[in-house]
Design a protein that fits this description.
The protein has 221 residues and is of the alpha/beta class. It contains six helices and nine strands. Strands 3, 4, 5, 6 and 9 form a five-stranded parallel sheet that branches. A two-stranded antiparallel ribbon has the order 1-2. The chain has a two-stranded parallel sheet with strand order 7-8. α1 links the parallel β3 and β4 (54-56). The longest helix has 21 residues, at 143-163.
Amino acid sequence: MNILEEEMILPNGSILSNRIAKSAMSENLSNKYHEPTPVLIDVYKKWAQSGAGLLITGNIMIDSKAIGEPRNVVVENRKTLKILKEWAKSVKGTNTHLWAQINHPGRQAMEQINSNLKAPSAVPLKTGGRNGTTKKVPEVLSESEILEIVEAFGNTAIILKEAGFSGIQIHGAHGYLVSQFLSPYSNVRIDKWGGSLENRARFVIEVYRKIRARVGSGFPI
């Protein structure tokens, strides 16, 4: 327990007060416009009182046309900056960091919400997936669309930094878009975005580089 209570100094100089963190989970607590709600903010106020050094939000979508689950928060512009600042302030008065997890679902978007599924390759899910996703064959992302998504990740990150979140997490797991690019099963492209591991990893590396360019060297990713 003594080790868990020790602070952690990150490479950029940020200090986490201890080694305990709440992992991201999809809270599904936005309103119908995919904005944060008072209920969501109250949840984080309670979690901030737990004493954890770090809270990571549930996946925040970078594009309102690509939503993973109902009631996901979407941050694609500054229209909701005021309420985002309230969310970021939920840890005020504590030693807890609040990092925002940002995400794009790719082919794993809910068809009921997004009729136009996009993915690295035209490879459907083997099963119906979860949360209402289907085995519909997704459209292949063009290179210009890939670059637009990379830009969107950077845009969402800087908005969340401006709102007061103290770090960003790129969602790279659970079959969402970053995972789809990394996997040789869902990414069968023959251009520079597929094939070798280096090419399949290009997307997430470019996402990271774009975010880093927008938020600066002193912000945790």
